Amino acid sequence: MGVAGASAVGITQSSYRVPSTAYPAILLRTREPGTSRFTWGAWLSFRGNQDPYAMLCLPRFRRAACQAMAMIDMHSHILPGIDDGAADAEEALQMLRLAAANGVRVQVLTPHIHSGRYDNTLASLRTAFEAFRCLVREQRIPIELRLAAEVRIGAEVLQSVGAGRLPWLGEWYGRRVLLLEFPHSLVPIGSENLVAWLMQQQIVPMIAHPERNRGLQADRSKLEPFLAAGCLLQITSDSLTGGFGPVAREFAIDLLRTDKVTVLATDCHNLAFRPPALSQGYRCAIQWVGQRAADDLVWHNPLHLLGLAEVD
Ligand SMILES: [Fe+2]
Question: Do residues 213 and 187 share a domain?
Answer without folding.
Answer: yes
